[in-house]
Design goal:
By secondary structure, this protein is an alpha/beta fold. Helix content is about 40%, strand content about 15%. It contains three helices and four strands; from the N terminus they run βαβαβαβ. Helix 1 links the parallel strand 1 and strand 2.
Length: about 120
């Protein structure tokens, strides 16, 4: 019996949470899943066409959206409206692509910063 393979697309694959997920997945890979970890080098998710091109290429069944425009505390203080608007635009492109390509499930986690920079993580 052929099982349909789930294709899980993770945006923000090079970030803190994305790398954490990748570490867990690599230690317990399932045969019925294919995980794609995107970075900003793979596509500009602020661009609707590039976002849809990624969805056309990988045909995800599930999406974990972690990508965000980040810049640290002082960058956010000086340009908080710009950061917010760009992150909302990126989120909207992902939501629309998920809807139009009939993605089964979307988990969206939008964070702009984690402080402090020099700390240990569990």
């Amino acid at each position: 019996m052929d099982m349909e393979k789930n294709v899980i697309l993770v945006t923000g694959g090079s970030g803190l949470v994305g790398k954490g997920i990748q570490m867990v997945i690599n230690s317990d890979m399932r045969e019925d899943e294919e995980w794609i970890f995107l970075t900003s080098k793979d596509a500009n998710l602020l661009n609707k066409k590039e976002t849809f091109d990624v969805f056309d290429k990988y045909k995800p069944t599930h999406v974990i959206h972690l990508a965000a425009i980040v810049g640290g505390l002082y960058a956010h203080i000086g340009a908080n409206c710009e950061f917010f608007r760009k992150n909302m635009q990126m989120n909207d492109n992902i939501l629309e692509a998920c809807h139009k390509t009939k993605v089964k499930k979307l988990v969206s986690c939008l964070s702009t910063c984690i402080f402090p920079n020099k700390t240990s993580y569990p």
